[in-house]
Design a protein that fits this description.
It is a single chain. This protein is mostly beta strands and about 400 residues long. It is built from five helices and 25 strands. A six-stranded antiparallel β-sheet has the order 17-14-19-20-21-24, with no helix packed on it. Strands 4-1-12-8-9 form a five-stranded mixed β-sheet, with no helix packed on it.
């Protein structure tokens, strides 16, 4: 029996991949926004490796129907990197491996590195004319590069060689080889920006998909200091963020607080700030105190597992992109980072009381009913898999065992 490996190029350019183990070991050229289907018989193994100016980079390593009938998948940067890639079983987000923003995290770490660190990495970290990282050489050949990459990607991708030839390897690398769930089709996505899969995951060709413009990140990084939220302001202006604790909470329901924000926190441009919150907090944070606004909804300590849980919601409007991420090293993240206001239809726009342009509510409130134009625009540009648009299900929950989540506003 065979399954399909969908190799999806979410970037705006044709991307070349080496294929080992399938396709007669022939390279493939995947057009912008297109998907290439590879037949993978049960019991077969191989790799999909992105090429950058002829150099091997990130690679998805796959074994179909291996031990106990399960697929084994991992994402590796051992031989280099020049883009972002993830691998998962189709429609099984929890099997996902890789850092969908590896290159952005790499570039941030490079710009924050000391002069001594940069000098030690000069031969293996390649930059463009503006000093931004475009590619790194094989991590396995440079111990100092391995140490550097672990500062931002440890536990998200294979960095070292793992357990091999008598060496115990690194525990976080070894975990990358854990089994997936059963034997299914496999999805590999590539992008210069966010490589998180767009819906529908299993669609063989996305003829009209256009990769969004990703806001580049180069901000200071606050650290978790206990239960709470790390706020990160990716804009060029100082911003205020308001926290609203729900009035009451039920089983899948809540009494939203619209009039008593506490606290209100100011974060400087391109800066971050840790906000300590009680473990009982269940509510949201948004830009300012006015609607429409993008909500980052969260609770600090869930009753079932004690972890922090959160998501992004556009139901009460959208005044810009937002993402929410775990800070416990698990790599969980959701939301979006691109500007969906710029080209939005006027029928979807509702201005805030202060005149700020935003997308209108999709579910209605005391000011207006649901805005169908906003619903359709957000479904097209974001999708229910990244943020709540009209309620219901389909938005993966982000959990952080250390009771601290990071919320990025763009």
């Amino acid at each position: 029996m065979s399954h399909t490996i969908f190799v999806r190029n979410m970037s705006k350019h044709t991307q070349e991949f080496e294929v080992h183990g399938w396709n007669n070991n022939q390279n493939i050229q995947v057009g912008a926004g297109k998907t290439w289907n590879i037949n993978a018989p049960d019991g077969s193994s191989g790799a999909i490796i992105a090429l950058h100016d002829g150099h091997e980079g990130e690679q998805a390593e796959i074994t179909k129907k291996g031990f106990m009938g399960n697929d084994f998948i991992d994402m590796s940067n051992i031989v280099g990197a020049g883009g972002n890639m993830i691998v998962q079983q189709v429609n099984k987000r929890w099997t996902r491996k890789g850092d969908p923003l590896f290159m952005q995290h790499l570039n941030d770490a490079w710009h924050k590195a000391s002069d001594d660190t940069k000098r030690s990495l000069d031969r293996c970290v390649h930059r463009d004319g503006h000093g931004n990282v475009t590619r790194i050489d094989a991590i396995k050949d440079y111990p100092q590069l391995e140490a550097f990459v672990r500062t931002f990607a440890d536990g998200k991708t294979y960095i070292g060689v793992g357990a091999w030839n008598g060496s115990p390897g690194n525990d976080n690398d070894n975990h990358q080889s854990s089994a997936a769930e059963g034997n299914t089709d496999i999805l590999v996505t590539y992008n210069d920006g966010d490589a998180t899969p767009q819906s529908p995951e299993g669609s063989p060709v996305m003829q009209n998909f256009q990769a969004p413009h990703i806001v580049q990140r180069n901000i200071s990084s606050a650290k978790a200091q206990g239960p709470g939220i790390i706020l990160r302001n990716h804009t060029s202006d100082k911003q205020q963020y308001a926290f609203y604790n729900n009035y009451w909470n039920g089983n899948g329901t809540a009494g939203a607080n619209f009039d008593h924000p506490d606290p209100i926190v100011t974060v400087n441009a391109n800066d971050s700030h840790f906000v300590s919150l009680p473990e009982s907090f269940k509510g949201r944070v948004q830009r300012g105190t006015q609607l429409p606004a993008t909500w980052a909804e969260f609770q600090i300590s869930a009753s079932n597992d004690g972890a922090a849980h959160g998501d992004i919601s556009l139901q009460q409007g959208c005044d810009g992109a937002a993402a929410i991420s775990a800070t416990d090293g698990s790599g969980q993240t959701n939301g979006f980072q691109w500007d969906i206001l710029k080209d939005a239809p006027e029928a979807a726009i509702q201005k805030k009381p202060d005149g700020t342009r935003a997308l209108a509510t999709t579910v209605g409130n005391w000011m207006s009913g649901p805005n169908q134009a906003a619903i359709e625009w957000e479904q097209q540009k974001v999708g229910q898999q990244r943020a709540y648009i009209v309620g219901g299900t389909g938005v993966p929950d982000v959990a952080s065992k250390n009771k601290c989540l990071a919320v990025d506003f763009f």
